[in-house]
Amino acid sequence: MKLEKKISIYILLILSVLILNSVNVFSWNSHFFYTEMAIKNNDWINNFPEIEITPYTYEDIDQDEYNPEFVIKYVEGEIGEKVKASDILISYSDEPDWDLDTNLELNKLQTLTGGSQGYRHMYFSVFAGLLKAGDAPKRANHFFEMSKIAFGKGDNYWGFRFAARAIHYLEDISQPYHTYPAPLDILFKKFFNVKKLTVLVTNAHYGYEGFNGYFFKYKKDEFYSILPEVKTVKMD
After folding, report:
1. Burial class (CB in 10 A: 0-12, 13-18, 19+), 63
2. 234 occurs within a structural domain
3. How many domains does the chain have?
4. String of b and e for 88-126 (b: at least 16 CB within 10 Å)?
5. Is the CB of residue 204 less than 8 Å from the CB of residue 182?
6. Helix axes 3-20, 156-172, angle to 10 degrees
7. Where, by residue number, does the polypeptide cross the bilayer (predicted)?
């Protein structure tokens, strides 16, 4: 099976894990936990030959806007060293949260998502689609395409690293507060008081993530063991 097809299947695997196992009940402030969980039993990823770390050479290909102060880091080793594919995916599924998307002017509606970082990491469609905001699905697709380009060039390191970025945005849009700002009754009650609504939603969002993130960090094995029993719950 071609590498591009393998990556396509792998991205779908991540998405299916998030949906079918209801990972959306957990925090989204430590993506490496979720990625590690999703790939831990994937033999193809875990048995992939070690990959040489290569420098970033995609400035002319990727013309999208990024934080001008963002600096590419190599957290798993130095350029030229070898690294596991699984380590690339796990380490860099957090990368879009390293200020990649901050300090940008993307859309007037980004004030509703706390700035450009939130706008690229969320996607809202409320009031029967009358209000839409966020670019998370587009960002996932963008880095999926970049991943295919890198693999097509034989650059497995950046193929997996771009895939890790794509996975980040897929994980983001499986988080309730990244796809729905608040229950409808609260939106209607506070619709004309944007300041109070923003404070309310922000507190709920980060409180939710912090609370669950604490348990995920310190009770990770227990979370792993109960996932097969978790059921989805529709939140109105």
Report:
1. exposed
2. no
3. 1
4. bbbbbbbbbbeebbbebebeeebebbbbbbbbbbbbbee
5. yes
6. 20
7. 7-28
Is 235 within a domain?
no
Residues recorded for the chain: 236
In this prediction the pTM is 0.75
Q: Is 18 within the bounds of a domain?
A: yes
User: For 168-181, what is each residue's pLDDT tens digit?
Assistant: 998 888 776 655 65
Residue 68 sits in which domain range?
Answer: 3-229
The set of residues, in sequence order, having a beta carbon less than 8 Å from that of 146 and lying 6+ positions away, is 58, 61, 62, 158, 162, 165
What mean pLDDT comes out for the span 4-12?
A: 51
| Residue 37 located in a structural domain | yes
